[in-house]
Amino acid sequence: MLERLYPDAVIATREDATAFGLNSVSDGRHVFISPGAAGLAARLADRGYVPVPVDMSEFHKAGGGIKCCTQEIREIRS
User: Fold this and answer.
1) Which of 11, 51, 53, 60 is in Cβ range 3.0-4.6 Å of 35 for a Cys bridge?
2) What is the pTM assigned to this prediction?
């Protein structure tokens, strides 16, 4: 059903997910991704993104990944 609703979605495999590939961060062009999610990185590259593998293996031991090490700051307009 998801493939029908989102035909252009980049599909992650179980291996990509297990390697914390879904815990990636993008600036719109670059995708900072776990090196273990090579399949997902390749599919993103095929779509024009630039995968940037970042070794977060020590954080993975605690259950975290790249996204867990980010802080999103938005501009406040008054």
Assistant:
1) 53
2) 0.81
What are the pLDDT tens digits along the chain (78 aa)?
878 999 999 989 999 999 999 999 999 999 999 999 999 999 999 999 999 999 988 888 888 888 888 888 888 887
| Long-range CB contacts for residues 24-28, cutoff 8 Å, separation at least 24 | 24/65, 24/66, 24/67, 25/66, 25/67, 25/70
Long-range CB pairs of 47-50, under 8 A, 24+ apart, other chains included: 47/10
- How many Cα atoms sit within 13 Å of 32 on the Cβ side? 12
